[in-house]
Write a structure and sequence with these properties.
Chain lengths: 198, 265
């Protein structure tokens, strides 16, 4: 089976850093937000340690998100008519009989997830996180940290589902980086053509 | 912390105690400031003369109760107002609502809003939740504020400020009785009677609250009440809905399989 390489090792390591830091931040975040979930912070050594973890994994997250933004922003901001069509059929996710237009290296859903969740929310949650840490405009920071947290924890289960069970084979892009050519042609047809991979 | 029975609830209050502050009776001696420091072993502050007898200029980690001086110029001449400023021991305390650490801030059974520095992580969010800008932070950034002498009242002793006050400008007792007392003295409304589920520190104001530098109708800061009443439940529901939605999609519409030939499975 002919394989094509979709991600570099650097991209995959960075995605893993993003993933781990996001989970540490989400668990300690839930532990702080709901007293009923405060027991989760026990796993981090109690609330004082959870706070230390939350801050320093926040630094890791911010750096990793910045690297991710620098890597994908160009691709994510280039829309064409196929992207609009992709959106109008919602990627075919809700009706498999629909014709789904071909995608470049990222499909429209991935572009939107990236722009809204990683660039928008990732940026704002990091900024407000540092503001809370340093104690500047804390009322604003607390509100927007919580608001972006809401958007991210609602979006992430969908991202994980789409990257695993919903699209079998996709997860390998973030573990080994290569996918079968047939898979790439179907999911990222224009990218395969542009790069001359077939 | 013997009296901190349950730390996150507000419905466990048995019989609320409180303080009644009557600015008209205060002569600005600041005995209460000194008494508070003495009982709580708080050091004096080094300050400098800023052209007023008000001293120190603001509450701080070592000053939990201070007399605010307001010197309005009236037609009839100079007036001086002396108002005791401190934690209000809110019935619905924003500090407790926002604090991320269960047990760092709590409420005693008689309604004092107290704290445990050993649990406080120094995040300062309580100052975001407080409608009255009360919490201050010590050199380890742990919360410091008036705790209504919860280490005295269970033994039947009045808070030191009230005990010391020579004019009765600060009086201590059963909260309902204090409200009745203020009304009996001719004050039509008592500041704090109903706002924020009732304040534990009540003020008998002759003029509108604004005249004394107090908010007319205090409530939780807008962002904090949005967060508590809307965002918190919405986040919990949203995560559940998102996970459930993914499952339902998998079970109904199902995954997008790709065969080796590149077609749909
Ligand atoms: C268990 C958690 C996660 C899993 C299993 C997962 C899986 C994946 C996979 C397989 C891809 C490749 C998709 C493709 O190229 O077609 C991907 C991409 C990406 N992920 Fe994640 N991810 C997780 C968590 C996160 C988190 C926490 C973030 C950031 C908030 C994130 C941000 C991104 C970004 C920016 C991309 C590249 C753009 C895209 O393809 O959508 N991921 N993820
Ligand atoms: S500084 Fe302490 S008391 Fe204040 S919100 Fe943070 S943990 Fe709670
Ligand atoms: S006045 Fe501020 S610190 Fe005191 S109980 Fe109310 S919210 Fe908490």
């Amino acid at each position: 089976m002919k394989m094509v390489q979709k991600t570099t090792a650097f991209e995959r390591v960075n995605h893993f850093v993003l993933l781990v830091s996001f989970f540490v931040l989400t668990f300690t975040g839930f532990g702080f937000m709901y007293s009923a979930l405060n027991w989760m912070n026990t796993a981090f050594g109690g609330n004082a340690w959870a706070s230390v973890f939350h801050k320093w994994f926040g630094v890791a997250f911010a750096i990793s998100a910045a690297i991710s933004i620098a890597s994908y922003i160009g691709e994510a901001l280039s829309f064409d008519d196929d992207d609009k069509k992709w959106l109008s059929v919602l990627g075919g996710y809700f009706d498999k009989s629909l014709e789904v237009p071909p995608s470049g290296k990222m499909n429209m859903g991935q572009k939107l997830f990236f722009l809204i969740i990683v660039v928008g929310c990732g940026g704002l949650i990091s900024l407000t996180g540092f503001m809370l840490w340093l104690g500047s405009s804390m009322a604003f920071a607390h509100l927007f940290h919580s608001l972006t947290f809401f958007l991210m924890v609602v979006a992430l289960p969908l991202h994980i589902y789409l990257a695993t069970a919903a699209n079998p084979g996709t997860f390998r892009i973030m573990t080994r980086g290569d996918v079968p050519l047939s898979f790439a042609k179907k999911k990222y047809g224009k990218w395969v053509k542009e790069e001359g991979l077939d | 912390m013997a009296n901190m029975e349950k730390l996150s609830g507000v419905d466990i209050t048995r019989k609320r105690i409180g303080l009644l502050v009557t600015p008209e009776l205060c002569m600005g001696c600041r005995g209460c400031q000194v008494a508070c420091k003495e009982w709580n072993k708080l050091p004096a502050d080094r300050t400098s003369n800023s052209g007023t007898y008000e001293n120190p200029p603001d509450l701080n980690a070592n000053t939990w109760n201070k007399i605010k001086f307001i010197e309005p110029k009236e037609k009839k001449g100079q007036e001086w107002l002396f108002i005791s400023q401190r934690c209000m021991h809110c019935g619905d305390p924003g500090c407790l609502r926002i604090c991320p650490v269960p047990g760092a801030i709590g409420k005693t059974r008689d309604g004092a809003v107290v704290y445990n520095k050993a649990k406080c992580i120094g995040c300062k969010l309580c100052s975001v939740g407080c409608p009255f800008d009360i919490p201050r932070f010590d050199k380890n950034t742990k919360i410091s504020k008036c705790h209504l002498c919860f280490d005295r009242t269970p033994a039947g002793l009045a808070p030191l400020c009230a005990k010391t006050c020579p004019t009765g400008a600060i009086s201590y007792g059963d909260r309902d009785a204090l409200i009745a007392k203020a009304k009996g003295m001719g004050y039509k409304s008592v500041y704090g009677e109903n706002s924020l589920s009732g304040l534990g520190v009540l003020y008998a104001f002759k003029e509108a609250p604004e005249y004394y530098g107090f908010k007319g109708s205090p409530g939780l800061p807008g962002g904090v009440s949005f967060w508590r009443n809307f965002l918190k439940p919405l986040t919990a529901i949203g995560v559940g809905a998102s996970v459930a939605g993914a499952f339902v999609h998998y079970l109904s519409i199902g995954p997008d399989e790709v065969t080796d030939e590149g077609g749909d499975a």
